[in-house]
Every structure is written in structure tokens, then in C-alpha cells.
């Protein structure tokens, strides 16, 4: 091997040793730095990251002790007090219509006119026949008077007098029949003018002027509904029957309010008018009918409304929001906050409910505070943090993966 090659090999060995020293020194320095950092961090207290060990934020409400108005909610239908299908009692051509569709009409108001010409002719004929029979009667009575005079003078036989008397009686009967025919013709003539039988609102007309109308046909000329007052018909569960019957028997007015579909606006206030005479066995409900004055026309026939019936008032009742009540294997319960700000499970016996409040028969004395929001994270003995009403809602617990 030449001297030049030997020198190159020595230089390579020298650089290799230097590189190993540099790498070893760097590793040593990093080990020292890592040890110092570990020592500092190990001396610091560990931070608790588990949200489950922290107090649970909750919103509470006090238990109320006051009069509880029990309301029964139902869906009702507005029913007119009277609905009349106005029909013609005689046949003829409709000459004139005197009402407008949707117009308010009064009892006795003229609605329509049917051509009276043929009925006037029939009346004239009946009156003519009556006058003819009256003339015959006058003549027969004159003859009867003459026969009676001659009979007294023993100039004629009694049989002639009796025959003339029979003729007079016959003519009197015909005149009575004529009088009835005249009255019938007048009645038929009066039917050509159609009047409103009730106060109410007229619907759409089903016949126009110029059409031929048949007597008592299936299609009415117009329908009139009476809506002052108006009824609302609805059904309640049969377990309310006893209380309602007792209230009505005692003369008490059972208040009923009608609300719109969204239950945001009260439309009218009335009272129970009557109970049905039997319970519907298929649904277990009892039909009721409430009457409303409806002078402002807030209720419309066949309209669906939400009904609230004031069934009874429970004096000095202990009540809580229905949303605070929980249901478990041991029954119904609520979470009560004790003086140590910890949650306690309190079993309840519940009564009637109304407008989001429910009566507590046993389990609370009226001085406690129950948890309304944040219940999903609570357990018996869990420490809580009470959130004021003006603060944001309690946060929802996120999963560990989040």
C-alpha cells in the first residue's frame, strides 16, 4: 500500500472518532435537560381534569304552598246554537234574493221572493167558489123561511121543509170548506215570500234568481247559523264526572276558556252548559257543552279550539313544576338541595296537575328547593353549584372523547 493511501485512511479514522464524541456529548446534554424538566414538573401539584368530580351546576326552584287551580285541557269544536236550512215550501220560479252571502240577518227578515202569480190565481178561484156558495146559501135560507111560513099555514108538507133545511145545511158546509180553501190558498201565497226564521249569519246562497225551486227539495236556498251565543263541545276523562256533577248540582258556574290552536291567545270565556247523558265506552270520556256569549265573533262554527276547564281549586296545596319530577324503579322523586349544597333524593306522592304545576301529597313540606335543570348529572349526595335565574343555563356534560 502506498504512503498516500495510508494517510487517507488515518484521516478517516480520526473524523469518525470525533463524530462519535460529538454525538455522545449531545445525547448527554439532552439527558441532563430532560432530567431537570422532569424534576420541575414532578414537584408541581397535579391538575384535576375530570369534570365529574366538580360540583354540578344546577338551577333550583322553591316549593310553593298556595291555592292550585286545577285545569282540564281538551280539544273542542265550536257548534252553533241553531242551524237552519232555509227551504221553500212551494214550487215556483225564484224571482228575487234579498240577502248577501255572509250577511247578518234578523228573525223575520225577507230573504227571497218566489213568483206569486199562480198562487194569486188559486186564491181568486177559491174566493170565487166561496162567493158562489154564499149566494146559493142566501137563496136557500130565503126559501126555507117561506116553506116554514107555509107549513105553519098547513099549505105544504113537512117533508118539503125538511128537504129545504137539509139543502141549507149542505150549503153551509160547502161555505166552510170554501173558507178553508181560501185560507189554504192564502197560506200558499204567503210561502212565496221566504223570511229568516232566526237571528244569525247567512251562508252562501245555493240558488240564484231565475231558477225553478221545488218544494222541500234537498238543497236549501241558504243556511243560517246562530252564533250569539255559541256552543263549544268537548270531551273529558270520565274520572272528572263526579266533581263536575257536584259543581253543577250546587249551582256553581264551571268556567271554561277557549284558546287558539297554538294555545297562545285566549279567544273567549264561557261556562259549562250541560253534560251528556252517557259516557262513551269506546274512549272512556264524557261529552260536555259550554256556552259562550261570542258577541265579538271570536268563535266560528266548526272551528277547532283548545279548551281549558277550571275543574276545582285545591286550597293551600304544596306544588312543584312537573319538569322537576323524576321517575325511577322506586317511584317518583325529586332532587332536594340540603344546607350543605348537596343533592338528596326525596320520594314523592303526587296528586293533580295543572299548567305545569303538580300537587305533592307527601314527601315535601313546602320549604325546600328542588332541582329543575341539571338533573341528568346528579346523584344522591352529589355537591352542587346553584345557578341564578339571570345566569346562563347549566352546561351540558361533554364526553371524554370530546
UniProtKB/TrEMBL annotation:
Alphabetized UniProt keyword annotations: Cell inner membrane, Cell membrane, Coiled coil, Membrane, Transmembrane, Transmembrane helix
Cell membrane as UniProt keyword: yes
Residues annotated as domain Multidrug resistance protein MdtA-like beta-barrel: 229-311
Residue ranges that the Swiss-Prot or TrEMBL entry lists as coiled coil: 123-188
Domain YknX-like C-terminal permuted SH3-like: 318-386
Annotated transmembrane regions: 21-38
All residue ranges annotated as the Multidrug resistance protein MdtA-like barrel-sandwich hybrid domain in the record: 83-225
Subcellular location: Cell membrane
One Pfam family named in its UniProt record: Beta-barrel_RND
Signal sequence region: none
Keyword Transmembrane: yes
Family membership: Belongs to the membrane fusion protein (MFP) (TC 8.A.1) family.
PANTHER family reported for this sequence: MULTIDRUG RESISTANCE PROTEIN MDTA (PTHR30469)
Entry protein name: Efflux RND transporter periplasmic adaptor subunit
Amino acid at each position: 500500500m502506498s504512503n498516500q493511501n495510508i494517510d487517507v485512511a488515518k484521516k478517516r479514522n480520526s473524523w469518525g472518532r470525533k463524530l462519535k464524541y460529538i454525538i455522545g456529548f449531545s445525547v448527554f446534554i439532552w439527558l441532563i435537560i430532560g432530567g431537570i424538566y422532569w424534576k420541575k414538573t414532578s414537584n408541581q401539584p397535579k391538575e384535576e381534569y375530570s369534570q365529574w368530580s366538580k360540583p354540578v351546576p344546577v338551577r333550583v326552584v322553591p316549593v310553593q304552598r298556595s291555592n292550585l287551580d286545577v285545569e282540564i285541557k281538551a280539544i273542542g269544536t265550536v257548534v252553533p246554537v241553531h242551524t237552519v236550512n232555509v227551504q221553500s215550501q212551494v214550487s215556483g220560479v225564484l224571482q228575487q234574493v234579498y240577502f248577501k252571502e255572509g250577511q247578518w240577518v234578523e228573525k223575520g227578515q225577507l230573504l227571497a221572493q218566489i213568483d206569486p202569480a199562480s198562487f194569486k190565481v188559486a186564491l181568486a178561484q177559491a174566493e170565487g167558489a166561496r162567493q158562489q156558495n154564499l149566494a146559493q146559501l142566501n137563496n136557500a135560507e130565503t126559501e126555507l123561511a117561506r116553506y116554514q111560513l107555509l107549513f105553519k099555514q098547513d099549505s105544504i108538507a113537512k117533508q118539503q121543509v125538511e128537504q129545504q133545511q137539509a139543502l141549507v145545511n149542505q150549503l153551509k158546509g160547502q161555505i166552510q170548506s170554501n173558507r178553508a180553501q181560501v185560507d189554504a190558498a192564502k197560506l200558499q201565497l204567503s210561502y212565496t215570500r221566504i223570511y229568516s226564521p232566526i237571528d244569525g249569519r247567512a251562508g252562501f246562497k245555493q240558488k240564484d234568481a231565475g231558477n225553478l225551486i221545488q218544494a222541500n227539495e234537498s238543497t236549501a236556498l241558504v243556511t243560517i247559523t246562530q252564533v250569539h251565543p255559541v256552543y263549544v263541545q268537548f270531551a273529558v276523562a270520565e274520572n272528572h264526572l263526579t266533581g263536575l256533577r257536584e259543581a253543577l248540582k250546587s249551582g256553581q258556574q264551571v268556567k271554561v276558556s277557549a284558546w287558539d290552536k297554538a294555545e297562545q291567545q285566549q279567544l273567549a270565556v264561557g261556562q259549562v252548559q250541560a253534560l251528556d247523558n252517557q259516557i262513551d265506552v269506546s274512549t272512556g270520556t264524557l261529552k260536555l257543552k259550554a256556552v259562550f256569549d261570542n258577541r265579538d265573533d271570536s268563535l266560528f262554527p266548526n272551528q277547532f279550539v283548545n279548551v281549558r276547564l277550571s275543574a276545582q281549586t285545591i286550597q293551600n296545596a304544596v306544588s312543584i313544576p312537573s319538569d322537576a319530577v323524576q321517575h325511577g324503579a322506586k317511584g317518583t322523586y325529586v332532587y332536594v338541595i340540603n344546607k350543605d349544597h348537596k343533592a338528596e333524593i326525596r320520594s314523592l306522592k303526587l296528586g293533580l296537575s295543572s299548567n305545569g304545576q303538580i300537587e305533592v301529597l307527601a314527601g315535601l313540606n313546602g320549604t325546600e328547593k328542588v332541582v329543575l335543570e341539571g338533573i341528568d348529572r346528579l346523584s344522591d349526595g352529589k355537591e352542587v353549584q346553584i345557578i341564578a335565574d339571570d345566569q346562563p343555563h347549566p352546561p351540558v356534560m361533554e364526553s371524554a372523547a370530546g
